[in-house]
Design brief:
The chain has 326 residues and is of the alpha+beta class. Helices cover 52% and strands 7% of the residues. The chain contains 16 helices and seven strands.
């Protein structure tokens, strides 16, 4: 993600709305009101004073939010950018390096290690790019002049809870311009819902503790319906004159593999589909002339992480290459 994918995720959810906050009050006065609200929510005034002691308005965050890419790229180009050979090579090396803890996480949560590594790779390039913005300042900035004031205020109060609980220090609390944090690039509310203290040290450290990172990713997926007896999907080919109205991720669009076989859907190499009574859906991220995938329920879980079929396909593709070993 990998920061760019999380930033894009935040932006696509929230339609640009005029900011009432910045039109009515100065940033300094807005911060004073935020501090009052935080105390009203139960935070100690001394704690709030400390957390806001160095808060700043980050114009770069506002610019980044307003300058989200508008051009449409193809899935092929997206995959080439997100899953280059060097990233596959590093994913394999790091999966081997962390195989013991990954195996432990896989057993406990029922999520294949290759998907954990694929998300880790895409979200932060294996923890190398987590963002350098102070999270409190970023979220205060986005609440003041962002696309959705209520959303970012909720994230801000969740971020304060994270610090209050002792998972990260004030000085080390850094993330993306949109407030996404750590090697998994969780938003603060996502952290509170899914982050895990896997090694039992009393902290849910998704910034520096890879065990906690892996377990937190796995906990999200498992909590959102992941099934480790299945993979994510497969690229397929369609017969000529195929009814493209059958493509979609809604429940009414799902059919068994046997039904898709009867409709002429085949593996990408032309071979028959597995003879399974397994519900699946067809997706065409680039329309009928682009790649076509037959996806399973785990793909829907990936879409809960990031509502982009491109993102889901990239995670699946990288996980497949990790499984293949090249």
């Amino acid at each position: 993600m990998m920061l760019k994918s999380t930033m894009w995720l935040v932006s696509i959810f929230y339609i640009a709305l005029p900011s009432l906050a910045c039109a009515q009050v100065s940033f300094e006065d807005y911060i004073k009101q935020l501090k009052i609200e935080a105390v009203q929510q139960g935070f100690a005034s001394e704690f709030i004073d400390l957390q806001f002691s160095d808060v700043q308005f980050h114009q770069k965050a506002v610019v980044a939010d307003k300058n989200q890419p508008e051009s449409k790229i193809t899935l092929d180009k997206y995959l080439a950018t997100r899953v280059p050979d060097w990233k596959v090579k590093q994913a394999l090396e790091l999966a081997e390096q962390h195989k013991v803890v990954l195996a432990q996480v896989e057993r406990q949560y029922g999520v294949q290690a290759r998907f954990i590594v694929a998300l880790w790779a895409n979200e932060s390039n294996f923890g190398r790019y987590m963002g350098k913005y102070p999270v409190i300042s970023s979220l205060a900035t986005m609440a003041y002049e962002g696309r959705r004031e209520d959303f970012f205020k909720k994230q801000l109060f969740a971020a304060l809870t994270i610090v209050e609980q002792g998972h990260i220090s004030h000085d080390d609390f850094l993330g993306s311009w949109a407030g996404a944090m750590g090697q998994s690039q969780f938003m603060p509310t996502t952290f509170l819902a899914y982050a895990v203290d896997f090694d039992g040290d009393g902290k849910k450290d998704i910034w520096a503790n890879t065990a906690d990172v892996f377990a937190s990713i796995a906990n999200f997926l498992k909590s959102e319906g992941w099934d480790d007896t299945l993979t994510w999907g497969r690229q397929v080919s369609l017969p000529k004159e195929f009814d493209m109205t059958l493509i979609g991720l809604s429940k009414q669009d799902r059919k068994t593999m046997l039904s898709w076989q009867e409709l002429g859907v085949r593996r990408y190499d032309g071979e028959d589909l597995p003879a399974l009574d397994l519900m699946s859906s067809l997706i065409a991220p680039d329309g009928p002339n682009g790649r076509i995938y037959l996806v399973y329920e785990n793909f829907n879980t990936l879409m809960k992480w990031n509502r982009s079929s491109y993102f889901g396909a990239a995670i699946g593709y990288l996980s497949d290459r990790i499984k293949k070993g090249s």
